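Exam prep: given the inputs below (a chain plus 6-O-phosphono-beta-D-fructofuranose), describe the expected output before reading on.
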Amino acid sequence: MTARLPRPSDVPGSRPPVVMCNEPGSFAWGVLHRRHPALIQQVRDAFPYPPRQQRALDALLAEITDGVVEPLAATAKDYSLWADRAEPYVGRSWFDTPFLWAESYFYRKLLAALEYFGEGPWQGVDPFGPFKDAELSSPVVDEELRALDALADLPPERQASALLQASLWGNRADLGFGITADEPARTDTGAGAGAGADAGAGLVSDDSALLWSLLPVGTPATVAVVADNAGRELIPDLVLVDHLLERGHATDVVLHVKPYPYYVSDATNTDVVGGLRRLVRASGRAGEIGRRLWTAAGTGRLEVRAHPFFCAPLPYEEMPEDLRTQFASVTLTILKGDLNYRRLVGDRLWPATTPFADVTAYFPGSLAALRTLKSDVIVGLTEAMTNALDRTGAAWRTSGTHALIQARPAPAAASDRTSSGPEGDTEGSA
Ligand SMILES: O=P(O)(O)OC[C@H]1O[C@](O)(CO)[C@@H](O)[C@@H]1O
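Solution:
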């Protein structure tokens, strides 16, 4: 069962509610009820943690299941980042908190329990590292990388489209799925996955032509890519980045990653290095791409940044000024994945037909979101599409079977275009 979804008439002129965790059977409730306890067990099984960490994991498990929200230790370096936000929820059941806040706080508390930020031997040890490594070294990645060779025979527009789709569907390869047995395994993702004949199937919204039109070939452009998961999502993201640089859609790319492990498989700089190594070691086209990206990193054309805000329990609307300035200064920001989308739309239950440009009007500069659908929130759909999907009775919002590419130009550019006519908006230039 998913949360009751509002109709447009529910929210005249006001914002819809944020997703909460307290509706038994809802998606958010299930994440807290099943996924987080299972994740604690997985992490416990993956490392020989000593008694202190084992006890801290026991305490965290008790807190999230039967207990109440406890504050972070006042000695934590980032205590102030979390304290204000935690204050309204401390002493309440975890199930009586907003979903976005609860998940983010869970990951922060998991790292605290494991002494990730401590002074001792477990400092900086990524608890999700073994899962990420297993995925990165799996034979399926070899296959996905080999598929890049076949792309070389396609016309340039089809190559561009395939690489965009591969980056999009790479978001299915989320190690968070599959933590509990009732969730479907993800297949058919990765660097070459977009070349398949039905790559467009499952897309509920496709602004890819608009996206390409925002990056005309040969015009100086900086693209910000806000990465999501490591491994089988990050590799096709890196391949897309290479395409943008190599084909003249971008002069520079800034790749934003998480400053520390988060939401199971989210990419950190260590994961970027791992992904680049994997590419460089590959044969054929994948190896060439890896070597170009390695050089681009060395010359600064590909820059990795890890702002603390990316692990904060906050929507993008509350991004700090320095990050806002960074996004305002680039030609296009591409947000990857479900969590970035939730933060973009405030994790609010907007009617699905609310225009993407309206909800994201606060976000500086031109924007694109590439996401497979893994939580209840969504905007920018047509009524016909929403009704058709609802009629299927399937869990289309949460199961990762559907995806979207949504884009809009910078708000000022949009109004310029309105005054000078609509042409030029949707022509691809890949
Ligand atoms: O890796 P992604 O695409 O951001 O997905 C993470 C998603 O997984 C969940 O943590 C649980 O499904 C969602 O809450 C979250 O949006």
